[in-house]
């Protein structure tokens, strides 16, 4: 023991590790996995061809028609009998299948990105808010925004049935009212009755403008919404209402729901995107909510609260980055299933409107000619679907392993 | 001395499915500016909950601060609105938590997390905050502070993380630092370093420190005053000397008796307090310590003792029979019996 006291004692317990960021780390593990790299290669090829075709390869689907060369088999070299090269053959209208498969890729990519974008953004926000406010008390503004938002969203259903769109605003108002009368009526037995009546009136009256039956249906739906909104206003109530709605969405077979939505909206690639996006919302909402619930209990969240940070900051700066990995994985996988759903809708004639090139629609157009031996018209769009879905799935699997902290020791 | 914080009749409860948990049951005490207060008691006695209640960090629901006043710098913290209490957190009262492994966010660098509070409360820009964060890391004894700013928490050892947490807590020069078992998760040599560090900083910066622990050895070394808590009640309060040498509460006596002593013959069994603390759902009507107390009388079961003055200089105790308890003779007789 020396008698001199050092001014600042210097730590010797270094636990220094070479600095590696999460993404670099994940990339190293990805590289080690052969299947993940295969998936990545397929995805990159798909992306490049789709984007490249869209940007640099003009193709006018409306004028592409050549009856003289319909249902030609694949032809790799130009000869006197077949002067035109069709490496994938031609379809029933004499269109080059290779061209259409490549351009169909752009449509699939669009559908995938937009649909996943819709479900990702809406689903994650719902999941974030419902998970977060289960552990944090809402302040008044948050209550107002969330409850009126909930009312607006729930009101979409009767508004749609009655095609009176201002109804959503009325139900939004009902949600906001729940916050304002909260103190006075919180314990009152009258509260559920009042809300149910208000909901029934809002739905029923505006429905009556259209037809008595519509009024009845909207009244009943409105009554149920009123009962839901009557719950005491807090994070738990918001979360349980949101999650029950998600459960309802999940209880439909996803294709059936997508078909139903497209049937309402009418066919078209854009409508298909919306339908597929809406069907995907509950998956992200539940994933985000469960992740937020566990992260919210972490001590660093309490610590950031204890230095005086507000809810928004805690949620988006401290909670969100910590739940990103499962969501990224889900989104990658979601791209694959969105492409598949788009193809299914296209096959049924509910997706892209002909003559727009789209893989599912191409299958739907050509499978009738399979019996007459035109295998190429079905095989190549089918392979395109298989490879793109496989690529995204392999990539998603690889990402899941690479981003999983439990695997990090490898 | 100037009173920094006065807590009056604080009640915190948790409404759970099994019933209402009475975590904090009417605690009242005052803290002076620059005081080091030790809060001791066994697990689940409401030490941490009462500290979290001060900053209103209790999760609501299921928690609820039912009654009480917490006066700090001339205002009642329990009556402040959302943004009001946020300005107190970190700037006037800061907190250090038990587990340094999980109290830093793994996705941000240590430097960023320290500067965050500075930018929030002091309105510093990025560079100023970074400079200050560097000074703070230096202050808490982390070598090569400037390099370390860009490290992620997993590159720090446990002791270094707790130092970083302390740096974060000190960043806005709070008047009160609440340390909630900051050394429990660390090994003994690092514990000693952290305690020394906090004591040094407390003297340099002149802030008050509330040190929550179940280790009586630690508070004996560093605290001026000690609060002993049991089942959500404050059962004895006094300065270190009084608590250790003129112990008046049988529970405190039991806690002190359970400490290992260096004079004891090898092989001596440690004394433990028989029984378990009462269920905080549905507390007994009388003294909460009744079931385990060696001094119990019938009266203790029927009526709950209030905190009352026992001797001079603010030593107070909640026990009906404190006059009969003379710590020194009791300790000797206990030693003789073995």
Descriptive report:
The complex is a heterodimer of chains A (410) and B (338). Chain A is mainly α and 410 residues long. Chain A has helices at residues 22-32, 34-56, 97-135, 140-162, 166-180, 182-185, 190-208, 212-229, 235-251, 254-265, 269-296, 299-306, 311-347, 359-366, 376-403. In chain A, helix 4 (140-162) runs antiparallel to helix 5 (166-180), helix 7 (190-208) runs antiparallel to helix 8 (212-229) and helix 13 (311-347) packs antiparallel against helix 15. The longest helix of chain A is centred in the N-terminal third of the chain and has 39 residues, at 97-135. Chain B has 12 helices and 12 strands. In chain B, the strands form 2 sheets. An 8-stranded mixed beta sheet of chain B has the order 6-7-8-3-9-10-12-11, sandwiched between helices. A 4-stranded antiparallel beta sheet of chain B has the order 2-1-4-5, with helices on one face. In chain B, helix 6 (158-170) runs parallel beside helix 7 (188-205). The radius of gyration of chain B is 21 Å and the shape is globular. The mean pLDDT of chain B is 84. At the A-B interface, helix 12 and helix 13 of A face helix 2, helix 3, helix 6 and helix 7 of B.
Overview in brief:
Chain A has 410 residues and is mainly alpha-helical. Helices cover 71% and strands 0% of the residues of chain A.
């Amino acid at each position: 023991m020396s008698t001199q006291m050092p001014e600042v004692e210097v730590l010797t317990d270094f636990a220094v590790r070479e600095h590696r960021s999460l993404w670099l780390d994940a990339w190293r593990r990805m590289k080690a996995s052969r299947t993940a790299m295969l998936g990545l290669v397929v995805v990159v090829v798909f992306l490049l061809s789709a984007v490249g075709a869209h940007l640099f390869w003009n193709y006018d689907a409306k004028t592409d028609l050549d009856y003289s060369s319909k249902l030609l088999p694949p032809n790799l070299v130009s000869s006197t009998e077949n002067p035109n090269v069709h490496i994938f053959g031609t379809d029933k209208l004499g269109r080059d299948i290779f061209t259409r498969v490549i351009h169909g890729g752009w449509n699939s990519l669009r559908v995938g990105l937009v649909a996943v974008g819709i479900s990702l953004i809406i689903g994650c926000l719902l999941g974030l808010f419902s998970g977060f406010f289960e552990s944090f008390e809402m302040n008044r503004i948050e209550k107002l925004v969330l409850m009126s938002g909930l009312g607006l969203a729930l009101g979409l259903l009767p508004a749609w049935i009655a095609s009176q769109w201002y109804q959503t605003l009325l139900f939004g108002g009902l949600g906001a009212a729940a916050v304002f009368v909260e103190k006075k009526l919180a314990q009152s037995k009258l509260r559920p009755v009042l809300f149910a009546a208000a909901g029934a009136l809002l739905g029923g009256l505006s429905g009556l403008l259209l037809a008595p039956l519509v009024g009845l249906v909207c009244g009943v739906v409105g009554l149920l919404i009123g009962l839901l909104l009557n719950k005491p206003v807090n994070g738990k109530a918001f979360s349980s209402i949101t999650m029950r709605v998600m459960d309802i969405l999940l209880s439909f077979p996803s294709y059936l729901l997508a078909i139903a939505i497209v049937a309402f909206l009418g066919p078209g690639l854009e409508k298909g995107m919306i339908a597929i996006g809406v069907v995907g919302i509950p998956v992200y909402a539940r994933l985000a909510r469960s992740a937020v619930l566990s992260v919210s209990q972490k001590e660093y969240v309490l610590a950031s609260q204890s230095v005086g940070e507000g809810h928004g900051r805690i949620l988006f700066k401290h909670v969100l980055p910590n739940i990103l990995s499962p969501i990224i994985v889900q989104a990658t996988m979601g791209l694959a299933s969105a492409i598949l759903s788009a193809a299914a809708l296209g096959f049924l004639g509910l997706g892209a409107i002909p003559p727009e090139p789209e893989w599912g629609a191409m299958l739907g157009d050509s499978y009738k000619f399979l019996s007459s031996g035109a295998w190429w018209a079905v095989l190549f769009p089918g392979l395109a679907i298989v490879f793109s879905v496989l690529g995204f799935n392999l990539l998603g699997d690889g990402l899941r392993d690479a981003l999983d902290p439990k695997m990090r020791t490898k | 001395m100037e009173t920094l914080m006065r807590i009056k009749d604080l009640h915190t409860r948790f409404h759970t499915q099994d019933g209402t948990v009475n975590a904090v049951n009417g605690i009242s005490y005052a803290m002076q500016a620059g005081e080091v207060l030790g809060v001791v008691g066994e697990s689940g006695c409401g030490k941490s909950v009462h500290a979290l209640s001060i900053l209103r960090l209790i999760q609501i629901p299921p928690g609820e601060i039912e009654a009480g006043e917490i006066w700090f710098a001339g205002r009642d913290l329990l009556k402040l609105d959302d943004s009001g209490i946020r300005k107190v957190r970190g700037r006037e009262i800061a907190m250090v938590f038990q587990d340094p492994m999980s109290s830093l966010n793994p996705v941000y660098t240590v430097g960023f997390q320290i500067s965050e509070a500075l930018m929030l409360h002091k309105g510093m820009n990025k560079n100023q905050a970074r400079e200050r964060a560097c000074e703070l890391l230096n202050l808490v004894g982390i070598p090569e502070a400037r390099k370390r700013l860009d490290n992620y928490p997993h590159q720090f050892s446990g002791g270094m993380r707790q130092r970083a947490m302390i740096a974060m807590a000190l960043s806005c020069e709070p008047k009160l630092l609440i340390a909630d078992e900051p050394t429990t998760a660390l090994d003994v040599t690092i514990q000693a370093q952290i305690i020394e560090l906090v004591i040094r900083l407390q003297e340099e910066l002149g802030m008050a420190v509330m040190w929550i622990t179940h280790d009586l050895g630690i508070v004996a070394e560093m605290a001026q005053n000690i609060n002993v808590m049991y089942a959500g009640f404050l059962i004895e309060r006094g300065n270190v000397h009084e608590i250790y040498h003129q112990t008046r509460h049988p529970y405190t006596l039991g806690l002190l008796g359970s400490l290992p002593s260096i004079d004891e013959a090898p092989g001596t069994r440690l004394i433990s307090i028989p029984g378990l603390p009462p269920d905080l759902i549905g507390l007994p009507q009388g003294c909460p310590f009744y079931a385990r107390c060696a001094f119990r009388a019938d009266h203790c079961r029927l009526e709950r003792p209030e905190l009352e003055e026992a001797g001079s200089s603010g030593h107070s105790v909640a026990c009906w029979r404190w006059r009969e308890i003379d710590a020194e003779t009791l300790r000797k007789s206990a030693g003789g019996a073995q």
